Amino acid sequence: MLDDAIKTQLKDYLGRLSAPLQLTHFADDSEASGKMGQLLADIAGASERVTVVEKRGDAAERTPSFAIHRPDEAPRVRFAGLPLGHELTSLVLALLHVGGHPPKVDEATLKQVEALEGDYRFESYFNVSCQNCPDVVQALNMMAARNPHVQHVAIDGSLFRDEVDARKVMSVPTVLLNGEPFSVGRQELEQILAKVDEGASDRQAEVLNEKDPFDVLVVGGGPAGAAAAVYSVRKGFSTGLVAERFGGQLLDTLGVENFISVVETEGPNLASALENHVRAYPVDVMKSQRAQKLEGTGPFKLTLANGAELEAKTVVLATGARWRNIDVPGESEYRNRGVTYCPHCDGPLFKGKRVAVIGGGNSGVEAAIDLAGVVAHVTLLEFADTLKADDILQRKLKSLDNVDIITSARTTEIAGDGEKVVGLRYEDRTSGDEKSLDLQGVFVQVGLLPNTEWLKGTVELNQYGEVLIDAHGQTSTPGIYAAGDMTTVPFKQIIIASGDGAKAALGAFEYIIRSTAPAA
Ligand code: FAD
Fold it and tell me: How many C-beta atoms surround the C-beta of residue 82 within 10 A?
């Protein structure tokens, strides 16, 4: 099941187990169960501290599935499916954390996990090609490993299709808590804790309010924010970084092949490399925090969504961008119930179904090509009369026999039956005719919007909502700098955002030394 290189790595990791582990395999005669048995045997082969016990006919458990637990404890961490692909790391971490190895989480957060009381039965649906799933699976597994009141089973949606259909799971990761919907989409540990631990947000705000003013406060944890933080702290400045999701858009990106010096990587890997780099320095990283208001003319006051206030001599804004909506009836009503923005994540849930991709730029055409290999049929709709994607992508798309391309199409509605998407209506802009398509999924791929609504009136924005900056990255307000996808800088790319983050931090450095120089 596992190749020799992975077995060697596993042996190395499992050398860190401080307690014996039992893998209980709830088995049947299916092919998937056979593969699971091989995987568990490979794991047991990598450490003498791991034993496998097979059980059949346990009606209370999903089959096939397996639990990771101490031999003297009831299982709390389970996988119903093969945690390979993007979930292999989740498997290794689950083994380590149940086996007593400490998780890489700050002490306050770990204490918060361990202090949870009550009964938390989490079920999460993943698929192995989903990049947004491992964070959720790993956070919930870690919580279950550390707290006996928490249980978690990670379920491969493609293996338990009936369950997915019955529970109307149309997007991964989807999480249920005690049988009730809990969340859809990527969640970090801190966000999960904030939802289950009432009062956590007020406690966090109290801690944040106690912080001394920063020299440089970076808002955003994507490539631009990470670079700005590293450059500022290396100047000897006290540096804080506030981010809702550390990694930003990298977390939604599959392959990255143009970050010069790294031939090929995946977005989430690059995101954790960025975080490691930032944490290699004494940057005060404040994750899962949303900035809401920025005031002052220096020093500046940043107010967060939980009410906390942070002060700084200078601010570097790097809040990036997000998927653009098409704003038609049905889009928000059926979000995650057939309407989705991430083909890499949710494509496999539409296996054998008919879907539409809206948008004929590079991302739309790439999505359609990707989906064509998984779903029964793809219709690509483009508003303009021609596709805008690169020729090479268009040629590939046109070579696929389960794809229809419709240009001059204005999507007017995503139709549903009250529970899920059943179709799409559009206007043929050439004839003016209203037309409709029967389908089960709509992938919206119409570009990005800058995350700058909260800055209206604070710094000057252009007509698209992008922050205007000068050659040093300074905004219209002296002392406030900006970088990356939220700015007017053309070509929204990782390497450009990183470079601009560095530039903005150096601009802020210049501002501080000039504004603190003694009078002549
Ligand atoms: P982002 O990455 O958007 O980061 C913004 C940060 O700000 C995040 O941490 C976010 O949580 C935080 N934030 C937002 N609002 C707030 C708030 N109010 N308070 C606190 N924090 C906030 N580029 C390439 O070079 N190569 C590629 O192959 C590539 N592929 C891509 C594929 C996809 C699917 C997408 C979506 C983008 C891709 N890009 C690629 C573009 C690239 O990801 C972006 O240009 C880059 O991430 C921009 O970095 P950034 O730091 O400006 O913003």
Answer: 20
- CA dist 189 and 112 (Å) reads 11
- 291 close to 454: Cβ distance less than 8 angstroms: yes
pLDDT tens profile 329-341: 999 888 878 998 8
Q: Mind spelling out the 3-state secondary structure of 426-483?
A: EEECCCCCEEEEECCEEEECCCEEECCHHHECCECECCCCCECCCCCCECCCCCEEEC
- The CA distance from 143 to 249, in Å, is 26
130 is an active site residue: no
Residue 254 has pLDDT above 70, yes or no: no
Q: Which atom of ligand 1 is nearest to the CA of 224?
A: 51
Return the pLDDT at 41: 97
Q: Match 């930003």 to its residue by tokens.
A: 248
**Model confidence pLDDT, tens digit, residues 59-72:** 999 999 999 999 99
Identify whether 345 is a catalytic site residue.
Answer: yes
- Cα–Cα dist 159/280, whole Å: 40
3-state DSSP assignment of residue 12: helix
Length of the chain: 520
Q: Please give the pLDDT value at position 153.
A: 98
Cross-strand bridge partners of residue 3: none
Distance 249 CA to ligand 1 centre (A): 3
Q: What is the mean pLDDT of residues 380-395?
A: 95
DSSP string, 306-351: TS-EEEEEEEEE---EEEPP---TTTTTTBTTTEES-HHHHGGGGT
Judge whether 346 counts as a catalytic residue.
yes
C-beta of residue 346 within 8 angstroms of C-beta of residue 428:
no
Three-state DSSP class for residue 435: strand
DSSP 487: B
User: Distance, CA 456 to ligand 1 centroid (Å)?
Assistant: 20
